[in-house]
Design goal:
The chain has 202 residues and is α+β, with helices and mostly antiparallel strands. It contains 7 helices and 4 strands. The longest helix is centred in the N-terminal third of the chain and has 33 residues.
């Protein structure tokens, strides 16, 4: 009985740490879906802890699997025979497998988050080269690929933006736009509205 309680606690801890590890990456997508773009960077403060949370998830779920797969002791087997207490679905290897797959999906979220953003790339049309400019922004709050996609998507929503490329590793974004249709200030305003903050230009 004690082992079952421990196993359930381990599975719960594994799920919570996996969600916490990916919260900073999931939030931009949830914000986009909910139409509350300004909340995108709400959990960016969790990013420094992400490697530790991933480690905790792996260790906790690894130990849960060890508990499930280790051979039962002789006295435990005798006890099981006497009570004929079969584990419920919530305490089964199948459920632990589902939890493990869910945790893996959560941890890998930054690498496939782009599929949740509608493609708003504009088709290249004839424009006057004299009106094309590129603004190079320094942005605070980006922590993963999901942040890149969110900033690029928000920038391309501005009429006149032709191309946007963000990089969370450098904290920079390069945005090409037609200055006859929009301005640098409008683009900065759109980026700031995501919850990330433009702190300067590079």
């Amino acid at each position: 009985m004690e082992t079952k309680k421990t196993s359930n606690k381990l599975m719960g801890a594994g799920v919570l740490s996996a969600i916490a590890a990916s919260l900073c990456c999931i939030t931009p997508v949830l914000a986009l879906v909910a139409g509350t773009s300004g909340l995108a960077a709400s959990f960016s403060w969790l990013e420094p802890a992400r490697p530790y949370l991933i480690g905790i998830t792996v260790l906790v779920l690894g130990f849960a699997w060890y508990q499930k797969l280790k051979p039962s002791k002789a006295d435990a087997i005798e006890c099981d025979c006497e009570t004929d207490d079969r584990p419920s679905f919530w305490q089964s290897k199948k459920f632990l497998g589902i939890i493990t797959v869910f945790a893996a999906i959560m941890l890998a979220f930054p690498y496939y988050s782009e599929v949740f953003y509608p493609d708003n790339r504009k088709e290249t049309v004839a424009v006057n080269p004299q009106t094309i400019e590129i603004v190079h922004l320094e942005i605070k709050g980006m922590t993963c690929e999901s942040c890149n996609h969110h900033i690029e998507h928000a920038s391309r929503e501005v009429d006149g933006v032709l191309e946007a490329k963000a990089d969370f590793k450098t904290g920079k974004a390069d945005i090409r736009f037609d200055k006859s249709k929009t301005s640098k200030e409008e683009i900065i305003k759109a980026v700031d509205a995501t919850g990330y903050t433009v702190v300067g230009e590079h």
